Structures are given as C-alpha cells and as structure tokens.
Amino acid sequence: MTKGSEKKLNKRSMLLLFLKGSKRYFAGSILSAGIVAAMDMIIPQIIRIVVDYCLEGGPGSLARPIQDALARMGGPSFVRSHLWLAAVMILAVAGIGAVFRYLNTYWNIKGTEGMVKTARDCLYEHIESLPFSWHQQNKTGDIIQRCTSDMQTVREFVSEQLIQVIRIVLLIVFSMACMASLSMNLSMIVFFSVPIIIAYSYLFYRKIGYMFLQCDENEGVLSTVTQENLTGIRVVRAFGREAYERERFRKQNHLYTDTWMKLCRILAVYWGTGDFITEGQTLLIVVFGAILCVRGNLTPGEFIAFISYNRQMIWPVRRLGRMLSDMSKAGVSMDRLLYILNSEPERWKGTARPEMKGDITFRHVSFSYTEGEEVLKDISFTMKSGSTVGILGTTGSGKSTLTYLMTGLYPLTQGEILYDGIPLQDISLPWLREHIGIVLQEPFLFSRTLAENIAIASEADATAIRQAADTAALDESVMSFSRGYDTLVGERGVTLSGGQKQRAAIARMLVQKTPIMVFDDSLSAVDARTDEKIRRALKEVEKDATVLMISHRISTLMDADQILVMDQGRIIQRGTHAELMAVPGLYRHIYEIQKPEGGEAV
Ligand SMILES: Nc1ncnc2c1ncn2[C@@H]1O[C@H](COP(=O)(O)OP(=O)(O)OP(=O)(O)O)[C@@H](O)[C@H]1O
Ligand SMILES: [Mg+2]
Question: Is the pTM of this model over 0.70?
C-alpha cells in the first residue's frame, strides 16, 4: 500500500480499509434490518389474535401478559367490537417497518457508495504510485477491468452478501422462533426443509458458477472486439477489413448470446424445480397444519400465522443459497484487487536536491528487462553541461531504454549514471524529473485543450505557452484553429496531425524550462525543414541547456557536439559528424542512404 506502509494487505484488512468512514452506515443498516425483521414478526401475531378471538374463545398459546391485558379489556367481545384497532395496529407496525426498511436501504446504499468511493481513491492513488515497469507489464484493459468489474463484485459482496445475508438470517431466526412458539410439531417440517432449500440453491449456483464466468468472459471479448474496432476504425477502413471485422463481431455476439441462452435454460429449470420444492413444502405445512387444527392441537389463528411466517421467509431463504455461493466470486475479485494494492510502489531512496548544471556521465551501464536479455551493454559516455549529444541507432538498439534509465523510470541495475558527479539514485526523484524535460517517443495528449496540454507539467501562463509553441513551430498551426489554444484535443489527440502532436509534446517540455532536455525521436513526424526550424529556435532559446537528441535522421543530429551510434545495445561509434564521416562505419553508411542524389542528407 501507499503512504509507506510495508504491510501486505489481506482480504479482511483490505475490506476494513475500504470501509473506513462507512462502518457506521452499515451498522445502522444492520440495526434497522433487525427492527424490520422484528416488525415482520408482529403482523401475523395480530392477525392470529383477531382470528382466534373472532372464531373461537381465544388463542391457546398467547403470551400470558398479552392474554391478561386482553382479558382485562373485555376479552373476545372487546376484540370483536374493536377490529378497527387491529387494523390501526397493523398499519402502525407496517408504517414503522416501512420507515426502517427505508433506513435499511438508505444506509446500506450510503455505506456502499462511501466504501466504493474510498476503494476507488485507494486504488487510484496506489496505481499512480506504481513504477513505470509495472504499468508496462500490466495491460490497461486488465487494470480497468479490475477497478470496475471486480470492484462491482466486491460492492455486491458487501451490500448484498454481507448486509442482506445478515438481514435474511435475522428474518429466518425470528420466523423460526415464532413458528416454534406456535407449533413445535409443524416447525419440524420447516426445520428440515429450510436447510434443504438453502443447500439446493447454494449447490446449484456453485455448479453453474462457471457458466456465469463464461458469460462474463464472452462479454469481455465482445467489448474488446467492439472497442478495438472503434479505436482502430481508421485501420479497419484503410485496409478494407469491414466485412472481416463484422463477421468476427457477429461470431462473438452469437457465442455470447448462445452462452446466455444455455444459462437461462438451466436457470428456468432451477426456478421451476425450486418453486416445486417450496410449494411442496407449503403443501406439507397446510396438510399437517389442517390435521393439527382438526385435532385441536392448533387454533385457526395460529395456523394462519404459521403459514404467514413460512411464506415471508421462503423467498429470502431461496436467495440465501445464491448469495452464499456468490461469496466465492467475491473472493476471486478481492484477490484481483489485492494484486494491485499489494504491488510494490515506486521506491526511491534518494533525497538529495543538488544544483543540476547538466553534466551527465554514464559509466558501464548495462540493463535488461527480462533476465538474460541485455538491451544495454556497457554504455559509457559523458555529456558536458550545455552541450548537445545526438544518438543515432538501429531500431531496438536501446535508445529509449537509455532515456528511461536516466529519468529513473526504470531502476538502474548495473553501472552508474551521475548528474554533476552525484549518483542518480541519491537524487530525489521529483527533483530529478523537475530538471529533466523529456519528449517521449510516443507523445500522449490528454482530452483537454491545447493550452492545458502544454502547461500540464508547469504553471505556465498564456505568454509562456505561446513562446514554447513558437519555438516548437506549432504556434502558426494553432493560430489557424478557430479556437486557438482553447482547441479541444480529441480522444488521444486525433484532431491533431502526428507532427502537430509531436510539436505540442515538445512545447509541453519547453515550458518547463529544464536545464536538461531529452528528445526521443521527437522530430520524426515533422518534415526536414520544420525539423531544422525547430532546432534553430531551440538553440536560440535554450542556449545553456544540455540536450540529448535521439533520431533516425542524420540531419537532425549532425550539429551535435558529440554523436553516439548505437547498435544492439552497444555504442559502436562516437564522435562529431566530421569525425564519423571520416571513417567507414554505420554512421557513414546511413548518411549515404539518407543523402538525396547529389545533395546533403535530409
Ligand atoms: N518494457 C519492455 N519490456 C521488455 N522489453 C522491452 C521493453 N521495452 C523495450 N524492450 C526491448 O528492448 C530493446 C530496446 O528497446 P528500445 O525501445 O530502447 O529501442 P530503441 O532503440 O528506442 O528503438 P526505436 O528506434 O525503435 O525507438 C528492444 O529489443 C525492445 O524489444
Ligand atoms: Mg525508441
């Protein structure tokens, strides 16, 4: 968990964490559930008294104090002449029951929503604190699924399985106690049948649990297919894949519907047999109750009350089995949430906040994402403060990895990176990132305005935003938009061209005014002239900055003070443009390829 606590959470401690601030609502909800259950017990008793006093001389097994009180008031004749009083009492009890039913639901919802909010806050805060490597290893869709679907299962577990189960258990216990007080013999039928009904529905739902899971999975695949098609609609159209994708969707849709239909058929059989069992149980009670009545062991009022208790209990009893079987689902979901919450947050020991002049040294740095597969091998180089270093390299040679290491996105495992002589891991991470501006290879823009996107990491005002955009050769394009810097960037910035997106990312980095700047292939989507324009503007505006410029284009790098050529994780050549051109090697080879007929490289 975040906030430095080292202890791993388990299911119980996670629930307690989520329930922080909501426990009192759940306590209120349980209390009112108890009152509702108690109220539910009273009405059959009133009916029973009325029936027995009207049809006979009085109830046989009524509590002594109530019998005495009724006798004092006038006994059967009083009850018969004051039937309205029974009606008022029923109304009052029903009214009180309704108020507490409302409170039960209200507090349950309030508690549940509060819990879900706390859970969302905890999850989000923790996810934000997790290292970059964790985010790279875990699919976004899966993380979102855990935070929504699994969270929903936990929500149901608390609001349904915990609170409602308590309510139902109270109802069953109270009802059984009332029934036992009316007739122990008849209660035997209930005592035997209720566990059977609970076990039947419990076992049934356990058995078909995998079908619900299958439905969920098929639904998941269907939404992934839909989402991918909507997200990649341009690719689908451009490659004329509409028919193929439609067919893929149709098949998945068919499979999903099929699984549901199969499940519904089984459910229908279950509900049919369930009804049969419960109605059979009622039948037994009616038959044996009638016999007891005829024999004089049970009064008609008691018989009616007994049936009422049984009826009001039987439906919740049937639900109980399902709720209990659903509890195992919650266990799986809780484990999935625990996976997130127990993942180690980004740990960084460094606290130093040195003056960052921009001297950077890499000493024998090697790195592998997966054991045994080194992507950086013994990298050593020095960047002098205020200088520009260019990196040219084949794809997959480790250029981006290098930038991840120097910004602490991945922990350094071998070798040293020094900033003005201070090891990277001794420097405070926020401090480090405050001083290194980076334009990532795949820039990401939020669905906000352009101005907000540019000023996302700083407090830049409108003038600073425009200045940065101007340096990044973006201002002109923005001014041609009717809403200028207030233009909303669509989902993933699709309203901007690739080059505009890259330039917005450059502007975002420039407004930070950091002494160290890293451009990871950040000019790849702009034409050679704009590339040159941006570099010239950069040189003027950021004279003192230390710049690391990664590119596949030689013209972007040729003015650098030092150029490193990388291949398969190693630096295979280094020097200025002139020095590298003077010797045969990869650099000169690439130059030859990029050079237009009879001209300079572009
Ligand atoms: N998160 C990751 N997990 C495992 N391997 C990775 C990861 N990111 C990159 N790699 C691998 O590391 C190697 C170097 O990748 P890197 O992105 O640093 O290359 P690059 O030089 O920036 O390439 P490009 O020029 O295409 O941007 C590649 O072989 C790549 O497959
Ligand atoms: Mg890269």
Answer: yes
